[in-house]
Each structure stands twice: as C-alpha cells, then as structure tokens.
Amino acid sequence: MKIATPDATKSRRSRSTEAVILFCIGVQTFAIAADAVQEIRSTDSLATAAIEMELAEVPKVRHLVERSHRTYYVVSGCAHFGLRVTRPTLVLILRQIRTAVLVDSIERMADVSRVHALPQAFQGTERQWYRGLAYLEDRVIPVIKPDGFLTPQEFARLDRAAKSIEPRHEFEGAVQA
Amino acid sequence: MSAAANHACKSWVLLHVGNRRFALPAESVIELAPPVRLHNFPHTSQLIAGVIVRRGRIVPVYDVAPILCGRESSVHRFYLIADRAFGVSSDASEASAIPVNGECELANGEMQPRDENAPLYIAGTLAIENENIDVLDLQKLVGVAGDNPGAADPAEPRP
Q: Domain tally for chain A?
C-alpha cells in the first residue's frame, strides 16, 4: 500500500484545479486564468505611459502602452462585451498576448475545479470571448479566452496605425525639446 | 430529437407558454425543473435568456415566448428541459430549457400533419380535449432567430 505524501497530495490538488482571477466590469463578473495575466496596474499609474490612438475599425482600443519594448493595445472591457460604459480603474496586462484590458475591479482569486464547455446554443461572438463557464459558489461565471479580445486582423490594423503614431510622437518630442 | 421525424411517438408533454398550450414529444423531455436561478452574462446569441444549472450541467434557456405568443411572459418560472439536436448525429444533442408556467401534463395521441400555413417550427397538431395543440419542433423553433433575425431582439450583447 502506498501512503500519499503531503507533496503528492498538493500536486494532485494543483492539477485538478485552476487558479483564476475574478474581475468585474460593471455588475458582471468574469474569470481569467491567473497565469494569463502578467500584471495588474491602476489606470492612474499607466496614464502617463499611455499613448492615445483612434481607429474607427477597432473602436474598443483607444490607447496603447509600451511595456518591455512591446506594444500593448488597451481594450475597453465595456466596449468589448457590449456592457454599459463604466469608469475602469484597473488594467490587466496579459501575458504573451499584446493586449491590456480595462476593468473596474478585482473581486478576488479563486480555484475552479472545472471549466464547462460553452453550450452549443451560444453561436455568437461569445464563442471567441469565452473558453467556457465556471460554476463557482452558486454563480455561473464566464471564463475569458485571453486571445479573444483582438483578432489577428485587428492586431494587424492596430500595428499599422501604431506605426504611423510613432514618428508623430518622436516629432512632437523633438519640438518640445 | 426532431418532432417531425417522430410521427410514431404517441406520448406527449403538454406545456403552457403564455396563454397557449403546446406539445413536445415525451421522449425528448428530460425534466420539469423548479424555479432556479437564471444566470446571465454578455453574449450575442438570439433567443437565449441565460443559463440554469441542473444536476451539475449548465443548461441554456431559450426565451421562446416572443416567437410563440408575440410577447414576453412574466409568468414563466419553471423550466422544461428537453434535448435539442445539433446536426444529424444523434449524440450531438444538448439539454435546453424553455421557461414554462409549471402546468405540464402527459398526454397520448396521434400527431396530425401540420397546417401548410403553419410556421415551420410546428411539426403537427394533436387533438386533445376538443383542442388542437401545436406540436413544437424544438430544433426549428430555436433556429428561427438565426433564419429570421427580426423574430428576436437584434444581436446586441445581453448582460
């Protein structure tokens, strides 16, 4: 008979659950895998680093930020999910994806044991938005797909627009100097 | 299961939506669920009012009252859960809920062909207690919004 060591028990538990961050946009709670988020910053702390951009084809992005020599596009969570406009106070900077998301608040972290597949009845853009649904303490919470905020086509458009912004900023900086 | 392909079915669940009675093949019905919490989150799929959780499963709820009765109904507090087929494979089905008022009953009868002017989501009719009751084809009923976007709310995200 084998006796499970505490370490083995711990690793089994960590395999069977997934750490998520629960965050709110308006009254709606969403979950995102904790390891998909690189940083959480306040909007105030990023305000000076954010560069305004407006692209009619991607209206949910109005700013970009440079972090570690990478350009992150700041997506309005309200606009992305079609929710009533709020005043976001936090930015989730995603890992591996050049997207930052404006949210209202962080509720807490949680462990979910299972992410249910989104029912086939859902056939709209939510299939790109969500990995699935978590059932947590009598609530059904959509689990975000981190790469669902911007499509490759939107990234390409934003990259083109960002390139045209860079020389303008360099010029403005030179004039101020 | 498609009701249209089920002429041999003799057993039906009669349900109330709004002030009308409809029927579904009994073998497609899973259960009548009590008033449980309707969970909602942003989406753009038409007709879906949210989801409920039953026996560990997340079940989408279709708000079919506007199609069947032409208006929202506030008296629907129970959920009739039935299998909705996706595609032709018999295992590609999903439990789906319709809000009903709780007065459901089992009836036996032979389904008569549908009136040619009836909407496509009506598979046929049953003559029960001097009443002609329309038999619903759930697959076609919830597909109505996709075929005819005007049949439901426009695809604004629903919180």
A: 1
- Asked if B70 reaches chain A (Cβ–Cβ under 8 Å), the answer is no
Fill in the DSSP letter of residue A35: G
Of A83, A129, A133, the CB nearest to B58: A133
pLDDT higher than 80, residue B9: no
In the predicted model, is pLDDT for residue B85 greater than 90?
Answer: no
In a domain, B157, yes or no: no
Residues in chain B closer than 8 A to A143 (CB atoms): none
Q: What angle do CA B107, B113, B115 make, to 5 degrees?
A: 115
Q: Count other Cβ atoms within 10 Å, centred on residue B34.
A: 10
What CATH number corresponds to the domain at position B106?
Answer: 2.40.50.180
CB contact under 8 A, A142 and B41: yes
Supply the pLDDT for residue A167: 57
**Average pLDDT score, chain B:** 83
Contacts for B33-41 with beta carbons within 8 Å, 24 or more apart? B33/B78, B33/B79, B33/B80, B33/B81, B33/B97, B34/B78, B35/B77, B35/B78, B35/B79, B36/B79, B37/A138, B39/A139, B39/A140, B40/B158, B40/B159, B41/A28, B41/A30, B41/A133, B41/A140, B41/A141, B41/A142, B41/B159
ipTM computed for the complex: 0.82
- Kindly list the residues of chain A whose beta carbon comes within 8 Å of any beta carbon in chain B: 26-28, 30, 81-84, 116, 119-126, 129, 133, 135, 138-142
CATH of the domain at A157: 2.40.50.180
Which pLDDT score, from 0 to 100, does residue A42 have? 94
Instruction: Report whether pLDDT(A98) > 90.
Output: yes
* Residue A58: pLDDT over 60: yes
| pLDDT the model gives residue A168 | 56
- Between CA A132 and CA A171 the distance in angstroms is 46
